[in-house]
Amino acid sequence: MKKHNSFSIEGQKARWGWFFVAPAILFFCLFSLYPMLNALWNTFFNVKLLSLKKPEFVGLKNYAYVLSSPDFWSSVKATVIFTLSSFIPLTVFSLVFGLIITTRKKGHQLLQMLIYSPAVLSSVVAALIWLLLFDPRGIANSLVNFLMRTPGIDHKWLTEPAKLYMATAMIYFWKYIGYFTIIVATGVAKIPTSVLEAATIDGASVRQTIGRIIMPLLRPTTMMVSIVAMLNCMKSFSTQYLFTQRGAPNAPLNVLTLNIYKTAMRDRYISRACVMSFILFFFMMILTIVRMKTSESKE
Amino acid sequence: MLRDKSFSNRMSNLVINILVAIFLCVILMPILFMFTASFMKSSEIFSMPYRWIPKEFYVKNYFNAVTDYGRNLTFVRTIVNSLIVASATTVLSVIVSAFAGYGLSKFKFRGQQVVFLMIMGRMMIPFEAIMIPMYIIAVRLHLQNTYTGLVLPFVLNTFGIFQMRQYLLSFPDEVLDAGRIDGLGEFGIFSKLVFKNSTPAIATAAILCFRGQWDNLLWPLLLSQKEMMKTIPAYLVKFTEEKYADEGAMMAVAVMASIPIIILFLTLSKYFLGGSAMYSSSKE
Fold it and tell me: For residues B150 and B213, what is the distance between their CA atoms, to the nearest angstrom?
């Protein structure tokens, strides 16, 4: 049966199919599957980098250590606050601006390009620009003081925890708002004009058109935007890293990715870093599954 | 759609235009700041109110940035590194993605569904979750401070594979059959017919990959301890640590680090925008 198969046209085509997917499978196994299993394995051992001795089995000790460490929970707190304070404004405002820019017909292409431009810059560049804007002598202070008529006050953007949360969330918002606005605008543009015309003929007001027709049709896009934004925020690293390297206080910036990096590279606790990686992975996986489910339900 | 000649509509039109203008100002102001500040001395950057046009163009910032105050050309080396790593990753990942996308869309074989699900499942694994074991593997294989080590982990581009597959699903089978009748081998069909006619999907995947690599800080930070093997984001971080008070030079480095990607954006903007638009189109 098998032999017959390999000589038939179907069999030959099947072999070519395997040939074309083979590189992807190879890279998947080497650089995704193996590291993943390795990470899981590491969490149960006491792994030392560059040590030739066989790592010692410690069971769930690493999990116990991480879950009872205040440092880890402060990281969770920092990640959650940062994620919430960036992705909620991102979702809300990308919807608003997405609706607005689709009504502008003139210079559509140029408008889209300008809005998108911050997403082109790399995260480190973005963080660096805002580091200077938030400097005690910088534009942020001068602007806020001008608007609130409080001359000469330093708002301590880079030293007070609450302000640091605002500052980092602001950077993220700035960098990605255009990106998500364009996703929303594309979603709006996909709504058939006939539906909107029918609504206008039936005498629906602008508010009704938006609330009753556009928003429900846009729900999958909205879900998509909010989850992708949330996933991106949870992975944020560059901004926090640059800020701490410039001497900003650690606690509000110590997001999980930064903590993993430091635990592994500075303190050399590979196993603990792997445990934290897994916890991060777990939450991101749940979000990804939700995202896949919602995009399926659109079909 | 929402257009009418009545007065209230013209008013709301005006309000919307003002909103768009404010939005654009907020978005563009920091970028403008980066460019103008790169031509200023630090004292001028922080003299409020900010002058949006430099008093005199202090070009020395750029000299200091490129030559590290006349000491060395590490900056040039890192930007070349970034170009090499980003280009190599892009080329390899586009080939692997096009291969896999073609194999998954135009062939039928046992286990195909499993392969597809496996690759899609990869989307759920954030790089951050596997970077530590990846680092250990790289150390064992002596890939620290090498281009190979910087490139290999990012060749598998799940999003690119998915996109190629979706694109090729609607690629006409007749073209492939015509190629077979004309005596092209399977590989010839792929390279001469499929690859050449998939420019939109390939360009979008390539741009996404290149931009991701240009932005990548975490992996090079782990892998490249040697100055000479750093990439541009890592160099930027180091420069800001060392030259704590020379903000003008920092901005000059930031501008130069952005120029390659800005040129790419200006010439291929439709693929940048298409990449983000894909989120709302891939599920139809």
Answer: 10
